[in-house]
Amino acid sequence: xxxxxxxxxxxxxxxxxxxxxxxxxxxxxxxxxxxxxxxxxxxxxxxxxxxxxxxxxxxxxxxxxxxxxxxxxxxxxxxxxxxxxxxxxxxxxxxxxxxxxxxxxxxxxxxxxxxxxxxxxxxxxxxxxxxxxxxxxxxxxxxxxxxxxxxxxxxxxxxxxxxxxxxxxxxxxxxxxxxxxxxxxxxxxxxxxxxxxxxxxxxxxxxxxxxxxxxxxxxxxxxxxxxxxxxxxxxxxxxxxxxxxxxxxxxxxxxxxxxxxxxxxxxxxxxxxxxxxxxxxxxx
Amino acid sequence: xxxxxxxxxxxxxxxxxxxxxxxxxxxxxxxxxxxxxxxxxxxxxxxxxxxxxxxxxxxxxxxxxxxxxxxxxxxxxxxxxxxxxxxxxxxxxxxxxxxxxxxxxxxxxxxxxxxxxxxxxxxxxxxxxxxxxxxxxxxxxxxxxxxxxxxxxxxxxxxxxxxxxxxxxxxxxxxxxxxxxxxxxxxxxxxxxxxxxxxxxxxxxxxxxxxxxxxxxxxxxxxxxxxxxxxxxxxxxxxxxxxxxxxxxxxxxxxxxxxxxxxxxxxxxxxxxxx
Lengths: 284, 275
What we know:
The complex is a heterodimer. By secondary structure, chain A is an all-alpha fold. Chain A has one domain: Orthogonal Bundle (MetI-like fold), CATH 1.10.3720. Helix content of chain A is about 80%, strand content about 0%. Chain A has 14 helices and no strands. Chain A is globular and about 70 Å long. Chain B is built from 14 helices and no strands. In chain B, helix 3 packs antiparallel against helix 11 (about 180-210), helix 6 (about 105-115) crosses helix 8 (about 140-150) and helix 6 packs parallel to helix 12 (about 210-215). Chain B is globular, with a radius of gyration of 23 Å. Chains A and B meet through helix 1, helix 2, helix 4, helix 5 and helix 6 of A and helix 1, helix 3, helix 4, helix 5 and helix 6 of B. Chain B: It is found in: Cell inner membrane.
């Protein structure tokens, strides 16, 4: 028996509380997380396949998928670049205000989404601080597609920063010293030496940011303008159907959103597991 | 030895870009919240905060958060103990399942609860027959808030307890300590700061939840309106100062959360330096 197996069987025998902690965990996960999802399928069972298909492919709903996916993709790309820059600056440099900047990175997670929503809408409206500067230049942000992407980027930026930061911190100094002493320029050394270490974390963080943006509601609805076919996100479509007491319609669209986000979550988990294993496998 | 990006020009450019972008993107909204809230003076701010409906919303929001925290605490500790102290089939599945609330859109979270416990749902119709109403009442708000916030404590504890290992608890157990004695005397002191941070995160999210709560609350002023919902109504009614007064209260909680995180991290790094 190897040491790991010995330790695990040992702890199973010695430590108490297996039954209690298993009981609480399974009961909680079943009641709080899994049982409600069955309600969704119960509702969907009342629909025929043709009805279901008609709801989820209706023009206005399809337009909302396009708006949501497009804006979330743009927000994720912005965050990939901006998040990488912030993580790099926070790990590699010393400067006044660094601790404050680091603390500020968590603001979008700590700030309620509705607060972010009305604040961004007020800032970027025509008479807001930012709107006043941008609109004369021809950039309209509030009540357009750009505003949706902006709100998504705001709420999901910490995912990228907080995923890339620890990987960058663990990178030993010798890695880039070696590259530099061999005469590589900054740009080449970054691309060839640093990026291969960073990109699994960068992809994971960007993926999480994307998933979060797909489902975001509170931060977006105030700045979106919510014009059918133009600036309506899918989460809002579900909400609108509910207000019309169209539970079947709301459930059908929700099932699409649920399926896509769970599939993406699973894909990110598998991807993450693979590269973690590869890193540890390298060490033996 | 020179490292990548150490040239003064590159360094200054990158730090400058990070600071300017963060100031515009993150700091400016924060400043704007308080500027808007106090744009008509402290007296108007105070009148908006001390308004009956606002006070009721604050009370409901805090009440729901206070009930959410112990529920999430018990679940989080139990799950973290289970997956870090024992090895059993299905362990990884449990760890993936608790991430569901992070991936599910809050509106979808509210909807699935409404479908199950609402008057037409299979549990809801039975409850309705017994005159119990969960949806469009505070229990519904509590239920979706628990759904949305349940991963936070577990997610803070699992990596820490995994890193600490179970040697200390095993030593206590072999010396004859009972299960709860081991937990209170060994485990809890080891995890207390991560536990505290998990609670702070749970609280921040519970207080600010909007999408899921707006589906199940019905948003009746003075009855089922939480602070984020109240803020939305004021904003839609063109009472911007009132909306931002509520926003400022919520932003204050967010700032306290950030300060707590920074001080807990500082504490941890100092302890590491001492070791």
